[in-house]
């Protein structure tokens, strides 16, 4: 980690987005993670994505559990409210926050221990409920903060830094998310911002439960030979099915790729996902196909990345609950307190 | 003048007519449809203007196990359990022995005479009466389900005749109940008359009577859970997250029903509330805390096991200072304990919930009226104190219909959102430190996420931080914060409901403290003790942290009885711990068998204690 | 005080002179008037027949590297050589002229000048400890405190600039950009984790495909427009990409090296040991 604050100096030609913010305006406190930790790169990707989407930082709420990964919300979007809750329970806190104010964008950041072990239940249920959120698991295959124990996403046969072999079967969070009904599912790698940044942008623009499994090497405990979550291993086995461009607003859509290799998906909020396909027969609108393909490639030892599934017309938890348009936290006494006469009626019915 | 329990105590066979003062108990089988018949009976008595206290005693199972419904009829207005049974409607062969045993000498056993009583069960000091309910039913109905259902209405009919319930009262109640399904009115009435006619033609009169009185007034008959839920609606709660657990489930269900009626936007038909059935209690409190953090009023309702699961989050709420409301409808612990029985045994686990140094305010409603009031108040307190507020009721209040004062609300009352810095405050450049105690009351200002484009954002965490919410594990910074939290807890003393004092007619060195569902039985016991010439001043505690008044009261008495429904004297422990009270001053009076405490029990305990204190050799 | 308005006019030979514009004079009320007197270089006293050539501005012709005039025995430096600059330049001129003179008197060619000595020393001491002070201050330049105006005006010999006191001097020194500390990259150590890219406040570092310089400059995280400053480009990395760094905007803050998990970046202090006019500058 570095402990001095990042100088305010910035590149003289640093561009501003439509809100008049530079990318640097979306930074947070100085990270306390290990030098080279993949999680810091994901923070940088989040900053880039939010900057490119011209979002106002105060319209975003950052939520997390406990772990190295869960610390990161302090290190990006310093002008956003953040909530570092308890281990494995980010999804419920996020769900509650989202119920209280449907107008904010909810960014849930978690780790593989946080979400695949202690918080597996909450992960599953928040996805099931279709909470409108971006749920990012910074997946390093270990418990970083407690010093390198295997996590539930560690692959069978992978070796720890001390040489211990993991015998337990791994949980594939992408497969789970698909099965649980997530309406936007992606996987990426902290070392590939070209793929990751648009994936996050698409997730933010998505209305519904968006889940991203982001491989994020732990340089301290899981970046050695024998690990299946190291920079080298992930690079060697990464099988991208597509690359994404997210186009918001009026920007024209350039078609510089042959038809068939390009898919255009219009999302609920008017944003457009422009998918450059690497595997032309991969169809990200086919949930069952995606699950089958993932299982097949995983068996072949490949890590499939890209936008794996999207339902552009998804609904969210509020749609299901039929809540009013106005955020619940803005309803005043007038709107919330029934009259004394309504109470009299209730009294009368109880005699 | 109505009879009182002291006069009646130990009474055996006599011939005097007893009017409007007896206990009738229905022993049924769970799932047999007896609940609506029993409730019909209770409502009939109320409609006659005679106060009742009704209690369900039911098992943790859906079908087949014993369940009882006890109705205490008391024109004098005693609403606690008296103890003892004057008329046992024994409809459950499973519990014959204990049901027969519980009848007071000289009183009545009513049974289904289709089958003769087993001779081993007979007692010769009681009156055995009955009607061939099954036989009449089998002759009348072909469908076995109907046979079972109408058997219950039939005994109501028989009782109506024996006790003197006017038929038109029953008719009116059935019409109200089945307004939407008129066919059922006639069917029920038919069964009612079958029973009534049988009693009229074939049963001898009994000594117990009901007679119209005008003692109910405008009081309502309602469950505490429903009242809490209604309080939550009036208290502005918009988010409810819960996980089913007896005896709290009906609170969430009632909230949903009340909201549907009262909180549906008339134009759009959309909900101005959100109810989520969580995957467990941890998720439920997590949702509540997320919503509270984001400025919505949120609550969960649960019981002991749920509170155990919520511990970590409750600590977060305490330390990160996030408003939350938990309705703890207490049941018999520990572990799964007696899940459908009542106790006041979560006091300690709620007061000090979570690891590290934590304490949480608690409110103790004594009846559904207070459930409503405190149910609403809890949300103002949670916002003002920015912490978890427990509303501690129990199965007795929560799941039984209580006769209580009608709910009252003043139009124009506003939600008190506590210290919140608005967009304007922030824009005006007021210094914002999330944990900065500007007023000296330990309560700091918070901002809602998204309040201002570039001011007022902070990072909420369960780790130690300074006054400006910046992470710090420096000893001085940590203790500064912990001390402020104590100051805040001190402020809470003046915000929770004040205790209610009832002084004896005479000066006395004896005091008694009690709370919650013990209240009606306590009042009756005080009255009974007074008749024995034993005087006690009484203080009903309604909130934690305890105000100075509580400790002044204890100091002002030589001996203070602490009456509560748990084994370990949890209220007493709290008093000792929080007020430095010497343990010998506080005499525990404990009732914890899972049934609601009775006036007879309290009277006997306190009288016994007083006797032994009075005869104790004086030491020098 | 009355001011006549003038404008700068350049003659055919590029000489600048100030000519009245003909506009009306302007009058300013003031309490005091301080007259600043400038000086001009002029060498009317140098004989024009001693083999010393003068240029169109009547200044001696001087070699900008050796500081030798057209008369090999005469050397110029400072204001006398190229007109007014500051004292730092003048000292540097003296240094180089001294080398020229040393070589000249030893009968060697003044053109043949040995280069200065250069050393690079790693500054890394611990995880985030450096042998140099890398914590940059964001402060803007501090003003040098001045003597009170009333005092200054009373006596023309008063020292007006008071200089920095200890505290201010320290604060001002914190603004140093450590130009002497260089980022040095070692390609074989790099695991391409992006940590340096993410932390760099100036967007200096890019990992990308190699290419022609012009295209590469445009492809960087922040385009490098100053073509007089070379890009720092690594050899090919594991993924086939290269690291390209725009040196032009680097703050030498060392954050890239602090964040680098493998030590692929190092911060090294660059020391320039200038050539001295003694035996070391002689041909051996
Ligand atoms: C209830 C509870 N149990 C255990 C811990 C200790 N703990 C802190 S972080 C962590 C694991 C984090 O792993 P992961 O989510 O993968 O995050 P990473 O550090 O790898 O990013 C554990 C077990 C805790 N904070 N709370
Ligand atoms: S321990 Fe691993 S996960 Fe944690 S900060 Fe260090 S590198 Fe990152
Ligand atoms: S020294 Fe600082 S400015 Fe220069 S490349 Fe490294 S991080 Fe960037
Ligand atoms: S931080 Fe180091 S290892 Fe990582 S990309 Fe930069 S130079 Fe390479
Ligand atoms: Mg991990």
Explained architecture:
The complex is a heterotrimer of chains A (351), B (620) and C (284). Helices cover 30% and strands 19% of the residues of chain A. Chain A is α/β, with parallel strands linked by helices and 351 residues long. In chain A, the strands form three sheets. In chain A, strands 2-1-3-4-8-7-13-9 form an eight-stranded mixed beta sheet, with helices on both faces. In chain A, strands 10-12-11 form a three-stranded antiparallel beta sheet. In chain A, α1 (38-52) crosses α7 (193-205) and α3 runs parallel beside α5 (120-128). Chain A is globular, with a radius of gyration of 21 Å. With 620 residues, chain B is α/β, with parallel strands linked by helices. Chain B has four domains: 5-209, Pyruvate-ferredoxin Oxidoreductase, domain 3 (3-Layer(aba) Sandwich), CATH 3.40.920; 222-404, Thiamin diphosphate (ThDP)-binding fold, Pyr/PP domains (Rossmann fold); 419-496, no CATH class; 500-609, Rossmann fold. Helices cover 38% and strands 18% of the residues of chain B. In chain B, β14 (362-363), α13 and β15 (388-394) form a beta-alpha-beta unit. Chain C is built from seven helices and ten strands. Chain C has helices at residues 79-82, 87-105, 149-154, 166-173, 195-199, 213-219, 255-259, and strands at 2-3, 6-10, 16-20, 26-27, 117-122, 181-185, 205-208, 231-233, 242-246, 265-273. β2 (81-84) of chain A pairs parallel with β17 of chain B, so a sheet runs across the interface. The complex binds thiamine diphosphate, iron/sulfur cluster (3 copies) and magnesium ion (MG). Thiamine diphosphate binds at residues 66-69, 87, 111-114, 138, 140, 142-146, 151 of chain A.
């Amino acid at each position: 980690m570095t402990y001095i604050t990042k100088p305010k100096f910035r590149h003289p030609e640093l561009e501003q987005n439509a809100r008049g913010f530079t990318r640097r305006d979306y930074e947070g406190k100085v990270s306390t993670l290990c030098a080279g930790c993949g999680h810091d790169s994901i923070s940088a990707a989040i900053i880039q994505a939010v900057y490119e989407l011209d979002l106002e930082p105060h319209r975003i709420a950052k939520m997390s559990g406990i772990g190295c990964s869960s610390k990161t919300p302090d290190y990006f979007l310093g002008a956003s409210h953040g909530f570092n809750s308890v281990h494995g329970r980010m999804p419920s806190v996020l769900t509650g926050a989202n119920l209280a104010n449907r107008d904010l964008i909810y960014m849930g950041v978690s780790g593989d221990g946080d979400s695949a072990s202690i918080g597996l239940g909450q992960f599953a249920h928040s996805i099931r409920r279709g909470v409108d959120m971006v749920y990012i698991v910074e997946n390093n295959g270990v418990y970083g903060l407690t010093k390198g124990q295997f996590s539930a996403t560690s692959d069978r046969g992978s070796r720890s830094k001390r040489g211990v072999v993991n015998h337990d079967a791994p949980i594939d969070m992408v497969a789970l998310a698909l099965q649980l009904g997530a309406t936007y599912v992606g996987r990426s790698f902290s070392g590939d911002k070209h793929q990751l940044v648009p994936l996050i942008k698409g997730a933010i623009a998505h209305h519904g439960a968006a889940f991203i499994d982001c491989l994020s090497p732990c340089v301290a405990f899981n970046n050695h030979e024998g690990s299946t979550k190291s920079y080298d291993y992930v690079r060697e086995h990464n099988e991208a099915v597509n690359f994404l461009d997210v186009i918001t607003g009026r920007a024209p859509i350039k078609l510089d790729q042959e038809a068939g290799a390009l898919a255009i998906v219009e999302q609920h909020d008017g944003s457009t996902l422009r998918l450059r396909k690497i595997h032309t027969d991969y169809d990200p609108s086919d949930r069952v196909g995606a699950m089958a393909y993932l299982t097949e490639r995983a068996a072949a030892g490949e890590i499939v990345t890209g936008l794996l599934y999207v339902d552009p017309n998804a609904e969210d938890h509020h749609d299901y609950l039929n809540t009013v348009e106005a955020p619940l936290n803005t309803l005043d006494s007038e709107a919330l307190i029934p009259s004394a006469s309504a109470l009299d009626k209730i009294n009368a019915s109880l005699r | 003048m109505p009879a009182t329990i002291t006069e009646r105590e130990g009474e055996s066979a006599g011939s005097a007519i007893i009017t409007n003062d007896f206990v009738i108990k229905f022993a049924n089988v769970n799932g047999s449809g007896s609940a609506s018949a029993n409730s019909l009976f209770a409502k009939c008595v109320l409609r006659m203007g005679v106060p009742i206290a009704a209690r369900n005693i039911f098992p943790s199972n859906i079908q087949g196990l014993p369940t009882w419904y006890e109705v205490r009829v008391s024109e004098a207005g005693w609403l606690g359990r008296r103890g003892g049974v004057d008329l046992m409607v024994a409809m459950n062969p499973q519990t014959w022995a204990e049901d027969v045993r519980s009848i007071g000498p000289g009183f009545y056993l009513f049974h289904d005479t289709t089958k003769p009583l087993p001779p081993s069960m007979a007692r010769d000091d009681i009156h055995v009466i009955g009607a061939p309910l099954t036989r009449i039913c089998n002759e009348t109905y072909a469908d076995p389900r109907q046979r079972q259902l109408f058997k219950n209405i039939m005994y109501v009919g028989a009782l109506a005749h024996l006790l003197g319930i006017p038929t038109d009262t029953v008719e009116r109640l059935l019409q109200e109940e089945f307004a939407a399904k008129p066919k059922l009115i006639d069917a029920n009435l038919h069964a009612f008359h079958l029973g009534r006619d049988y009693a009229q033609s074939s049963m001898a009169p009994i000594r117990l009577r009901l007679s119209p009185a005008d003692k109910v007034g405008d009081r309502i008959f309602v469950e505490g859970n429903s009242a809490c839920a209604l309080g939550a609606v009036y208290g502005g709660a918009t988010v409810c997250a819960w996980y089913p657990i007896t005896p709290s489930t009906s609170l969430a269900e009632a909230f949903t029903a009340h909201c549907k009626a009262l909180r549906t936007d008339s134009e759009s038909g959309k909900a101005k509330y959100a109810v989520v059935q969580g995957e467990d209690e941890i998720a439920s409190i997590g949702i509540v805390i997320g919503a509270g953090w984001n400025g919505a009023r949120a609550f969960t309702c649960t019981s002991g096991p749920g509170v155990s699961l919520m511990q970590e989050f409750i600590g977060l709420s305490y330390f990160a200072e996030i408003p939350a409301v938990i309705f703890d409808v207490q049941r018999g612990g520990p572990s799964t304990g007696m899940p459908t029985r009542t106790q006041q045994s979560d006091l300690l686990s709620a007061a000090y919930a979570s690891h590290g140094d934590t304490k949480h305010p608690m409110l103790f409603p004594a009846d559904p009226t207070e459930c409503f009031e405190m149910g609403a108040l809890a949300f103002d307190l949670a916002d003002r104190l920015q912490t978890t507020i427990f509303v501690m009721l129990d199965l007795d209040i929560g799941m039984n219909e209580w006769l209580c004062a009608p709910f009252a609300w003043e139009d124009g009352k506003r939600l008190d959102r506590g210290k919140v810095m608005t967009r304007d405050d922030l824009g005006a450049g007021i210094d914002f430190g999330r944990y900065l105690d500007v007023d000296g009351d330990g309560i700091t200002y918070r901002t809602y996420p998204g309040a201002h484009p570039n001011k007022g954002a902070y990072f909420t965490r369960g780790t130690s931080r300074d006054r400006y919410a910046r992470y710090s594990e420096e000893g001085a910074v940590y203790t500064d914060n912990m001390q402020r939290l104590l100051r805040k807890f001190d402020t809470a003393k003046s915000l929770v409901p004040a205790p209610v004092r009832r002084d004896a007619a005479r000066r006395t060195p004896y005091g008694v403290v009690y709370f919650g569902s013990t209240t009606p039985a306590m009042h009756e016991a005080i009255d009974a003790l007074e008749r024995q010439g034993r005087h006690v001043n009484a203080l009903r505690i309604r909130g934690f942290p305890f105000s100075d008044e509580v400790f002044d009261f204890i100091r002002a008495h030589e001996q203070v009885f602490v009456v509560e429904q748990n084994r370990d004297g949890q209220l007493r422990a709290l008093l000792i711990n929080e007020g430095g009270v010497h343990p010998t001053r506080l005499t525990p009076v404990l009732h914890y068998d899972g049934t609601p405490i009775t006036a007879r029990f309290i009277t006997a305990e306190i009288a016994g204690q007083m006797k032994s204190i009075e005869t104790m050799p004086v030491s020098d | 005080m009355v001011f006549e308005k003038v404008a700068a006019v350049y003659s055919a030979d590029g000489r600048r002179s100030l000519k009245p514009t003909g506009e009306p004079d302007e009058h300013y009320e003031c309490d005091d008037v301080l007259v600043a007197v400038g000086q001009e270089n002029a060498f009317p006293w140098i004989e024009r027949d001693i083999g010393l050539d003068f240029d169109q501005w009547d200044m001696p012709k001087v070699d900008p590297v050796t500081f030798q005039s057209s008369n090999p025995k005469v050397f110029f430096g400072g204001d006398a050589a190229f007109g007014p600059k500051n004292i730092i330049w003048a000292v540097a001129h003296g240094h180089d002229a001294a080398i020229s003179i040393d070589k000249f008197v030893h009968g060697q060619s003044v053109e043949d000048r040995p280069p200065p000595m250069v050393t690079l020393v790693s500054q890394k001491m611990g995880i985030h400890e450096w042998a140099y002070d890398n914590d940059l201050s964001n402060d803007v330049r501090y003003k040098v405190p001045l003597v009170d105006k009333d005092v200054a005006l009373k006596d023309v010999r008063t020292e007006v600039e008071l200089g920095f006191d200890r505290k201010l001097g320290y604060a001002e020194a914190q603004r140093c950009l450590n130009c002497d500390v260089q980022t040095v990259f070692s390609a074989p150590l790099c695991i391409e984790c992006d940590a340096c890219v993410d932390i760099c406040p100036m967007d200096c570092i890019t990992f990308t495909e190699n290419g022609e310089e012009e295209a590469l400059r445009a492809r960087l995280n922040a385009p490098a427009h100053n073509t007089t400053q070379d890009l720092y480009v690594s050899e090919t990395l594991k993924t086939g990409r290269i690291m390209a760094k725009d040196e032009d905007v680097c703050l030498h803050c060392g954050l890239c090296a602090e964040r680098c998990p493998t030590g692929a970046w190092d911060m090294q202090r660059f020391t320039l040991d200038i050539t001295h006019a003694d035996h070391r500058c002689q041909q051996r």
